[in-house]
Structure formats: C-alpha cells, structure tokens
Amino acid sequence: MLALIKANIQPILTLFTLRPVAFTYRWRYFAFTPGFWLINTMKYLPWIFSSAYRTYYIPSTHGGHNIRVIVFEPVYGPSSPAKSKPRPLHFTVHGGAFMPGIAEQNADIAHRVCRDTGAVTVSVQYRGAPRLMYPAAHDDVDDALAYFLSPEAAQKFNLDLNNVTVSGLSAGANLSLSASMHHVGIVKAAVSFCGVVDIRIPPWEKPKPPGFPSSNPIAFLEPVFDSYAGPLRPKHIDDPRLNIILAPASKLPQDILFIIPEVDILLHEETKLVERLKKETEGSDRRVEAVFYEGELHGFPELPGVVSDPVKCEDAWRRMIDFLRVSNEKGGWKWTA
C-alpha cells in the first residue's frame, strides 16, 4: 500500500516541487491527477493481498536512489522442469508517456508470462516526467535490467542468462528496447505493444491514421505527455537510445514481435520501423513479426472491453506468450506447469 501512496502523491510533489518544472507542464499534470490515481489504484488493488510476487529495491547507479521492482517466480507442477534448472528471465516495463507509475501496472502481464512460460518475470517502475526529463526513466530501466543480468541476481533467482526476453507497452516498449541495446546478444527476444519508437516529433504532429477520432478531448494534455523528451528534442534528435527507429537491427534483440493497433498515431512510425528491420534481417534467422489490429486504439490490450475488442486483446496476449515460448525453447527451456 505504501507503494501506491507514494505513487499517488507524485502530482502533488510535482506541482509544489522545488525542481524547475515549467508551469505549462505542472498544471496539465495536476489536471491529469484523477486519471493518474485511478490507473494506479485499479492496477494495484487486485494485488494488495496477493503473494504472487515479491518486491525488491535495486540501487541505482544514476543518482543514489532505489528502483522498485516486483518479481514473479514460477509455480512448479509435476510435469515442470527440475527446480534446480536455471529459469529464463523476462523483464517488462509499464507505459504511461514516460511518467512515473507503479510496477503493478504490468503485474497482469508479468503474472501471465511467468505462469505460461515459466520465466522469472520482473516488472520495474521508474522516475519520469514532468518532474524529471530524459534520460531519468531510461537510466532507471537500464540499471534494473543490468542488475538482473548480473551474476549476483542470476544466483539469487536461479536465472539462465542465455535466455532473456523483454517487453513493454507504449513508452515501456521504448524503454525495454532501449535497455536491450546495452546487452546485445544477451536479450534474445522482445515484444512491443503500441511502442513509442520515434520521439523526433511531438504527439500533435504525428500523422493521424484512417479512422482516428476527429476531435481529441484530452488534446490539452499532450504537452505533458511530451514533457519527458520534448524540451530536449533538438539535442537528442539523432539518439537511437531515445528514438528506437534509428537503431540498427544489429543493436536490437534477435527476435521482435510488434503488436500494433491501427487507430493510433504511432501506426506510421511503427510500420516504418518494422519494414526497415525486416529488410535489414532478410535472409537471416532473425524474426521480425508484426500483427496489426484493425479498429483498435493505442493501449488496446489494457483498455476496458467497452472500448476494445476482448477477442483481439486475448489474441495479442496469446501471440506474446507463444512468441516468448518459442524464444525460450530455442534457448533450451520447455515449460509445463
């Protein structure tokens, strides 16, 4: 519960912080506070009495703070691999326009991946906008992943560091793919849900796909959604760590699955990235796959059934699990609960 309370006071701290946060961001972030509280609370409360995961705090190498993660470990059944056998690691990052949330935002994903693949699954939370700009969130995610790829963590959690995968939704896809670039050849596969891969232009300038709503009731919030990288955009215009669309295939995981809704301002940039990566990896044993979901909005796998198609959402989650299982099996891990 303390994690939820700390997360939910972020807008108040940002409004009255001593940090030089521009007023144009402060008031918009504060206006978003009810939605922020609702998202955090809805994601946290289902797990409040759960023993499905444990919480850990990873020391940061960027600023002397601790990074909160939650870790799911598989429950073994009679047909499972031996408990002594090292397990795959899956590392997942929540979305939210690079704004700080709670690790439980990806608890559902982490629990499902752990249950269905047998991987030790980590969900990380990070610092972010508008209180802190780039590269605060990237540094936190990088540090957390680096810890779980260390010999210390491998021994503590009985990990097979030859069998590592990542995932993320929206900004989380950017963060997970970016972190994987520091561990070329180690992170074997990635799944990107509605990934933010090109931050060289602000949200309001991104091309609108067919079927996109003609009016956007939360358009006034777009500047705060852009506050993590927007003020620094000219300085980092050619930075592949921030703009994944610029990263060569050789720096990214060997296998990548893109889950892409078609009614999303990110459709254009994701499609361009997929097309380029497929061209770069043509004739190799690498997998670059994309699944497009007609009529679905940004973040659809996590949206309520009244706004998204539950059948398509389930299809997206199942494709993720199947993709990760294939990767794990290539690494010598076959899971039966």
Write the layout of secondary structure elements.
Elements: H1 2-8, H2 10-16, H3 23-31, H4 33-44, E1 53-59, E2 66-72, E3 87-93, H5 107-117, E4 120-124, H6 136-148, H7 151-157, E5 159-169, H8 171-180, E6 187-193, H9 222-225, E7 255-263, H10 267-281, E8 287-297, H11 310-330
Parallel strand pairs: 3-4, 3-5, 5-6, 6-7, 7-8
Antiparallel strand pairs: 1-2, 2-4
Helix pairs in contact: 2-3, 5-11, 6-8
Q: What does this entry show, briefly?
A:
This protein has 337 residues and is α/β, with parallel strands linked by helices.
Overall geometry comes to globular
**Termini separation:** 30 Å
Extract low-pLDDT stretches. none
CATH topology: Rossmann fold
Rg over C-alpha atoms, rounded to the nearest angstrom:
19 Å
In total, how many domains does the architecture comprise? 1
Helix content: 25-40%
Q: Secondary-structure element order, as H and E?
A: HHHHEEEHEHHEHEHEHEH
What CATH architecture label applies? Answer: 3-Layer(aba) Sandwich
Strand content: 15-25%
Mean of pLDDT: 92
InterPro entries: AB_hydrolase_3, AB_hydrolase_fold, GDXG_lipolytic_enzyme
Protein name: Alpha/beta hydrolase fold-3 domain-containing protein
GO molecular function: hydrolase activity
Domain Alpha/beta hydrolase fold-3: 92-300
